[in-house]
Design a protein that fits this description.
Helix content: 55-70%
Number of helices: 13
Structural class: alpha/beta
Mean pLDDT: 90
Strand content: 5-15%
Oligomer: single chain
Radius of gyration: 17 Å
Shape: globular
Strand order of the largest sheet: 2-1-6-5-3-4
Low-confidence stretches: none
Length: 238
């Protein structure tokens, strides 16, 4: 895990957004991985996921509180969480003011369609150059289509590790722009699912709210977050 932590972004969200916006303005290419313990656990088992995390044009940010806790155990100080849903919201506002282009890929048809309409209504300065739901069969063809359109921002909401594997396979085809794997963020951004109340967000307890409202997440939480802590404990004593 230490190799991932050496690479993870450790400064504030405000500073990160400035750097990300600078990359877009300069026409450079960047992948952003919004990391939680699950993606680090997957990277230990899947070579392509690990390859994306360690790629030179990938920046890892701490989405989950488990990543901050893990960093502390291993001696890495990470200033704050940088949730994917907040990156998206901030980028929408910035892209609207600076007339940037955007492509949305993922989620259920009704979710991505609702989000697309919301963007067109609330952020008229954004050029929405396309969107596609996450249930299409040929997802690689969609990534090829996105690469051809050369959007400034590409949001891929397919969940881990599918979104990371797709980005890994197609990153070389992109000449510019940022690609961000954002998991289930479209559900919240579209307004079709509520984010955790402010208290839970402020206290870094979004994971508890999600488990309470969606008990089926408990098994996934155990298989990744709890096992992650055991791995960290072992590494911290090596």
């Amino acid at each position: 895990m230490k190799e991932y932590y050496k690479k993870i972004y450790k400064d504030s969200k405000a500073e990160f957004m400035k750097k990300l916006e600078g990359k877009i303005e300069a026409g450079k290419k960047q992948c952003v991985v919004t990391a939680n313990p699950e993606i680090f656990m997957l990277a230990d088992r899947m070579k392509d996921v690990r390859g994306l995390l360690m790629a030179e044009d990938t920046t890892i940010v701490a989405d989950g509180i488990g990543i901050l806790i893990g960093g502390k155990k291993l001696g890495f100080r990470i200033k704050e969480r940088i949730p994917g849903v907040e990156i998206c919201s901030d980028l929408f506002e910035w892209a609207d003011k600076n007339r940037k282009s955007l492509f949305l890929f993922g989620a259920k048809p009704e979710v991505v369609e609702t989000l697309a309409k919301k963007i067109e209504r609330e952020y008229p300065g954004i050029y929405l150059c396309g969107y596609e739901n996450g249930y299409v069969r040929d997802k690689d063809a969609v990534l090829e289509q996105i690469a051809e359109k050369e959007p400034d921002i590409s949001l891929i909401a397919l969940g881990a590790p599918l979104q990371e594997l797709l980005i890994r396979r197609h990153m070389a085809s992109f000449k510019k722009g940022v690609l961000i794997g954002v998991g289930g963020s479209f559900d919240v951004l579209s307004g079709m699912k509520k984010r955790a109340p402010k208290f839970f967000v402020k206290c870094n307890l979004e994971w508890l709210y999600r488990i309470a409202t969606e008990p089926k997440r408990l098994k996934r939480f155990w298989n990744n977050n709890i096992k992650f802590l055991f791995v960290l404990r072992k590494e911290s004593h090596e």
